[in-house]
């Protein structure tokens, strides 16, 4: 017998079982069996009466709900759900392969479980529910509608990447029928939140209404995506609305997994626990920095990949600078707990950063991953996993802690056919075209190219995707390539920045001559760029399809 595959705490599914398997199932703790395979479907299968007799002898219950292969009806799913709730658990359901049983559970669970959770649970058990995803999104019922809308190009995500690529496409193909799918009312300039947490920017300056930024002529579908059907060129929205496309661009950003740290959600925004990764919390960071006179301040960085890898230490530098300028640094202990093993992934910038680590007397704790926060007790627990040593845990007291949360691809991406094994959209790193589906592209934080996840990267990626989509519309091969460019303006003190610019493999990609901005050293010019020039470039150029210093590079013959 194949081992049962759990798909919920009270239900497992399995291929056909034999009479001799029933006693073992009882010994393993199962208290009920549901047979979803009609008698006589296969010459070698036991009848339900035989299974039921073995179950009775083993002291467990058995029920018969036969389903014809490929014909799981809505009433069948409702009957299965009622039966599962009625029987003592845990329950084993079986059919020929387990697929019918998994489908019945998925449709029954759709009334009270998120679609992504259902798809993740069944996928982990080895069952692909893509064939019934519309029914799952529709609460387990068969939808009667067809596509609600159809567009030449559909863009999933209205953040920096989505709006920028829409604007770049409109500039190239003014008549194209383009739609952006995004449920948010507000669009944020997230690179500004570090400056908010350092008391330089006002939080309100980093937010504008989504409607004011959607390019003219682009349809805005204000809804959340539930699932993808790439073989049918369809995006399924919450509520089971269907949007069809000829070409799809996927850029919904990533998910900040606040629940990935035990106790964090309950204490965010109080008890000295803050994060510049949230609009509403960045002002609290500055409040804490101003209010701290003495004690211990912790700054954390989770395992990669994360949005803007320099942001966790930028918060540390700006805080340390304030305490240095106000004469409090001697009374404040700073520690940077990094899940990785280096301060910054591109070694050319590390010497300049280390000067500031030493200036602020910050302790660097590598291979330290935050796993729990007890806000009222002001304690943080880290998992320490140094190379060639057994993992341990250490608990540290704090007066203030700035947390960078763990980050993953959004749930609806991770369980989709678009994702690689790690959950990110699987693209060619040069053309940003999906490796399996030729009419799908991706950019921004959600795709799996090995580049830094920054707004500066999206600024370079948007024209590449726009060029390649337009080439595809014209029946041509890809014409533009992305070189992995990313930028991280590391705010090491108020008035100076180390402007890290690099591409694939850590190759330096400076935008300015060294006499103007030497990116490996802290400069005032880089600070002026970050404080005064980049915000208007973002709002007035990048989001409007004006590709200042972002013209796409032609695809080389080797890549093509």
UniProtKB/TrEMBL annotation:
GO BP term (any one): sulfide oxidation, using sulfide:quinone oxidoreductase
Short name of any one Pfam family annotated for the protein: Pyr_redox_2
Cofactor dependency: FAD
GO function term, MF aspect, one: FAD binding
Keyword entries, A-Z: FAD, Flavoprotein, Oxidoreductase, Quinone, Transit peptide
Gene3D superfamilies: FAD/NAD(P)-binding domain (3.50.50.60), Protein tyrosine phosphatase superfamily (3.90.190.10)
PROSITE patterns from the UniProt entry: RHODANESE_3
Protein name, entry field: TIGR01244 family phosphatase
Chain ranges of the Rhodanese domain: 77-131
């Amino acid at each position: 017998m194949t081992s049962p595959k759990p798909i919920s705490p009270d239900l497992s599914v399995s291929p056909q079982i034999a009479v001799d398997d029933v006693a073992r199932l009882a010994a393993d703790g199962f208290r009920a069996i549901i047979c979803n395979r009609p008698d006589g479907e296969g010459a070698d299968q036991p009848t339900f009466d035989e299974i039921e007799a073995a179950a009775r002898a083993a002291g467990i219950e058995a029920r018969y709900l036969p389903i014809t292969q490929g014909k799981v009806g809505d009433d069948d799913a409702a009957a299965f759900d009622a039966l599962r709730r009625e029987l003592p658990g845990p329950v084993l359901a079986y059919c020929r392969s387990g697929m019918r049983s998994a489908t019945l559970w998925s449709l029954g669970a759709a009334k009270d479980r998120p679609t992504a959770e259902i798809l993740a649970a069944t996928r982990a058990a080895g069952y692909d529910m893509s064939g019934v995803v519309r029914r799952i999104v529709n609460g387990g019922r068969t939808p009667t509608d067809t596509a609600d809308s159809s567009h030449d190009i559909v863009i999933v995500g209205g953040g920096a990447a989505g709006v920028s690529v829409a604007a770049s496409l409109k500039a190239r193909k003014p008549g194209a029928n383009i739609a952006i799918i995004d449920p948010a009312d507000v669009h944020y300039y997230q690179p500004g939140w570090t400056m908010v947490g350092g008391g330089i920017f006002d939080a309100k300056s980093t937010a504008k209404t989504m409607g004011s930024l959607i390019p003219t002529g682009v349809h805005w579908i204000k809804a959340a995506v539930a699932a993808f059907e790439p073989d049918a060129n369809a995006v399924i929205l919450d509520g089971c609305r269907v949007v069809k496309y000829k070409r799809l661009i996927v850029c919904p950003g990533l998910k900040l997994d606040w629940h990935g740290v035990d106790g964090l959600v309950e204490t965010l925004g109080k008890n000295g626990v803050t994060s510049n990764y949230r609009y509403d919390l960045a002002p609290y960071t500055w409040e804490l920095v101003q209010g701290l006179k003495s004690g211990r301040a912790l700054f954390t960085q989770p395992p990669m990949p994360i949005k803007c890898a320099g942001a966790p230490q930028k918060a540390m530098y700006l805080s340390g600078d304030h305490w240095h300028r106000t004469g409090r640094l001697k009374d404040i202990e700073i520690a940077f707990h990094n899940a990785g093993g280096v301060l910054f992934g591109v070694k050319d910038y590390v010497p300049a950063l280390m000067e500031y680590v030493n200036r602020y007397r910050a302790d660097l704790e590598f291979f330290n991953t935050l796993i729990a926060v007890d806000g009222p007790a002001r304690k943080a627990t880290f998992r320490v996993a140094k190379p060639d040593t057994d993992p341990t845990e250490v608990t540290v007291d704090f007066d203030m802690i700035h947390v960078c949360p763990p980050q993953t691809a959004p749930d609806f991406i991770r369980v989709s056919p678009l994702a690689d094994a790690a959950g990110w959209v699987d693209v060619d790193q040069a053309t940003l075209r999906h490796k399996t589906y030729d009419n799908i592209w991706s950019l921004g934080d959600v795709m799996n190219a090995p580049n830094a996840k920054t707004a500066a990267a999206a600024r370079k990626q948007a024209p590449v995707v726009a060029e390649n989509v337009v080439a595809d519309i014209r029946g041509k091969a890809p014409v533009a390539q992305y070189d992995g460019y990313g930028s991280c303006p590391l705010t090491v003190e108020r008035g100076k920045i180390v402007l890290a610019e690099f591409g694939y493999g850590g190759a330096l990609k400076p935008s300015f001559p060294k006499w103007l901005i030497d990116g490996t050293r802290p400069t005032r010019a880089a600070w002026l760029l970050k404080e005064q020039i980049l915000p208007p470039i973002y709002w007035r150029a990048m989001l409007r399809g004006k590709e200042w210093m972002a013209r796409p590079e032609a695809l080389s013959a080797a890549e093509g």
